[in-house]
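Hmm, what's this shape?
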Amino acid sequence: MTINRREFLKTSGVGLAGLFVLPETIHPSSPIGQDGYGILYDANLCIGCRNCESACKNRRDIPAEFEQELDADNWTIIKLYQDQENTQIYSFIKRNCMHCVDPACVSACPVGAMKKTADGPVIYDETICIGCRYCMAACPFDIPKYEWEKVFPRVQKCDMCADRIAEGKDTACVESCKIGALQFGKRSDLLIEAHARIDNDPANYINKVYGENEVGGTSVLIVSKVPAEKLGLPVLSSSSLPSLTWPWMKAVPGVAFVVASLMTFLYWLTGRKLKVEVVEEIKNDSH
């Protein structure tokens, strides 16, 4: 089968460009990023009852068996921190997806299977996921988990009850918390509440709202009397990961175009050389 230069340009240039589809991200200053819904977790009020874990599983019709680490079935867990030198110093900590304002998992997904919704949750579309697991590698909180044991595995993580939020309801975990350790609302309102708690009781809260600035901000906010690093939370900069990688990612289409153009030129040059050789051979045969 022969192919002309125009057809080659279509298949190489356009084809290569199609491989590099830059994911859509939400800038931290956008209304979606800053004032979607979120959850405030007060570790000082948490008693470790694990009602939130049960509610999360009940919503998904999964038996309420408690685990110590996040996995494909366990989207939220309650862990206990206890000081090794002074056992009187302890705190519970709730771990689940932080639903970043500018999510690295969304930025890393080449097919858009991860999305940040206008309401705040970061959700996952299993119907278009290709199983690359880039979202798992990109997440600074090590949240997305894979169904390794299944024939057709999916990426699994907390979706902040996006379906319930769309219906005007609180998340299942917040609804199940009867002591007020969890609060649902607009992120901006939750930040005001978090700082008010710290200001009103500085002896029992460290002066920090975890998630306010980490990686550009998260929709899940945490206040406690124990530093975040001791609770197993990563120490992160205030720059969102997509904002750091975007200058490199936006160069990809340009690189793809240059490569496609070079391949087209090489094809043309090789074809022209072959054509000249054929013409010369025909001339020689005629003589």
